[in-house]
Design goal:
Helix content: 40-55%
Shape: elongated
Distance between the termini: 60 Å
Number of strands: 12
Largest sheet: 5 strands, antiparallel
């Protein structure tokens, strides 16, 4: 097939439905018509003018085949040059941000990767601030994110495979893993699920997470997420697989276990005893968040005789003459806190802080004085909401579990609270994420992984990779 620049220009315009940002720079070299085609805003215009057009127009000798060798000798950006014969792939590459050089009577198209797409600079992610440790965070540019990982994993075994998903968005998706450590079966399973996706577009990595879940309608968090390259690197070294979507600063990691959210990157940059203490605080905070509202409701409705007399008199004094029962009152206060939290997140930052203060102080105090709710209920709900933020990535799941415990306690007292707690734990026990038990290393018990669970031993003592995560190589330190 010989290229006719004028005809191909019209064909490209039709393929892009006359898009206004599809630009053509037409020129000639020694009587041969040429054109550079690109999407305005996605490429570096100065590079096109200087490194391609100006460089070719300085050609003194005859402009004739073979064009590949001629272009490599003349164009400064030739190291980013690719040759394409298929028109559909040509149009796809132009839409992706490449510049295409069209030469009259040539048999191929020449593509140059001189993208200059707008992107955010590398900063500390707002969801993972640290006092010590790396402050770099992923951005919305997939290439930047893969470079941040490659900078830390300078080894030929680190593999990045790329595919495109989405009929209209054609979003780039990268699968990153370390060959020889990651389980090939898990890698193959992830690839298979991603390749099977047929959807209009992928806007964020959260779209991919929906297709990668083992259980589609589970309340549990099933896919690990992170905005920090050091965290993802550590997970890759343990045998996990990372999924990076272009346009999203959130990187997914598989397999995922509950213990991951108990740990924090800052734990590894501080004293081991301090790290153990902080992890205990997180666990206590979550237990308090989950069980305290249900315990309070159970005591007031069915087991008030368990309270000390002085404390019981104080509570009865505060709750008598209230219009609501204890369970309705607790559910109402918890829902108010959820609404305040959602509103503060969605409001502009400078208004969100004021809204939180108004809701927590003014509304709470006014509701108590008006006799709608009791001060002990507000206190218990506030303590529960503070505790649930000790593990922020599990808020969505634990909030639903907490509400279930309150309802069970209101119906059956302590029996309902204990039974519902057992049911939640049993539900977690049945879940297995890509071969990794959700409650590992506690159920099933994996002795080697206890070194970095609630307690944290010295790095020198953690010679093997976690047995909770399927992998091909067990020893990480000799």
């Amino acid at each position: 097939m010989e290229i006719v620049v004028a005809e191909l220009k019209n064909k490209l315009k039709d393929a892009f439905n006359g898009a206004a940002d599809l630009n053509f720079k037409e020129f000639s070299v020694n009587g041969v018509p040429l054109a550079v085609c690109y999407i305005d805003g996605l490429i570096d215009k100065s590079s096109v003018e200087i490194n391609i057009i100006s460089a070719l127009m300085k050609t003194a000798e005859a402009f004739a085949p073979p064009y590949k060798e001629l272009l490599e000798s003349k164009i400064c950006a030739a190291d980013a040059m690719e040759i394409e014969d298929d028109f559909e792939r040509l149009a796809s590459r132009i839409a992706d941000g490449d510049a295409a050089l069209l030469i009259q009577n040539a048999e191929s198209f020449f593509l140059f990767g001189i993208k200059n797409q707008p992107s955010r600079s590398i900063t500390e992610p707002p969801t993972s601030t640290v006092l010590k440790g790396p402050r770099e965070g992923f951005t919305e540019d997939m290439k930047t994110n893969t470079v941040l990982l490659r900078k830390r994993l300078k080894n030929r075994s680190f593999v990045i495979e790329t595919m495109r998903i989405g009929r209209y968005t054609s979003t780039g998706v990268s699968i990153a893993y370390i060959s020889g450590i990651a389980d090939p079966k898990i890698v193959a399973k992830i690839k298979e699920r991603l390749q099977a996706i047929d959807i209009d577009g992928i806007i964020d990595s959260s779209y991919l997470a929906e297709f990668l879940k083992e259980r589609k309608f589970s309340m549990l968090k099933q896919i690990g997420v992170s905005e920090k390259p050091d965290i993802v690197t550590a997970k890759l070294l343990e045998g996990r697989v990372a999924i990076i979507a272009d346009g999203s600063p959130i990187v997914l990691t598989i397999p995922f276990i509950l213990l991951e959210d108990l740990q924090d990157s800052s734990d590894y940059y501080k004293n081991d005893v301090r790290a153990f203490f902080i992890r205990m605080i997180r666990i206590i905070g979550e237990i308090m968040a989950m069980l305290l509202p249900g315990f309070f409701v159970a005591v007031l409705t069915r087991h008030y005789q368990l309270l000390p007399m002085n404390f019981l008199v104080s509570i009865i004094t505060s709750v008598h003459e209230l219009p609501f029962t204890a369970e309705i009152e607790m559910i109402f206060v918890l829902l108010i806190f959820e609404i305040l939290n959602e509103a503060s997140v969605r409001m502009p930052r400078y208004i969100g802080m004021s809204l939180s203060l108004i809701g927590a102080i003014i509304l709470g105090d006014t509701a108590v004085k008006a006799g709608l709710i009791s001060s002990p209920t507000v206190l218990i709900a506030a303590m529960s909401n503070i505790g649930i933020y000790c593990i922020p990535d599990q808020i969505s799941s634990f909030s639903l579990f907490r509400l279930s415990l309150v309802l069970a306690s209101s119906l059956f007292g302590f029996f309902g609270l204990i039974l519902c707690t057992i049911a939640i734990v049993a539900y977690m026990l049945t879940y297995n994420s890509y071969g990794a038990p959700y409650l590992a290393p506690f159920a099933p018990y994996i002795g080697g992984d206890i070194k970095d669970s609630i307690e944290k031993e010295s790095l020198i003592n953690m010679k093997n990779r976690p047995g909770s995560i399927p992998h091909d190589s067990d020893v990480r330190m000799k």
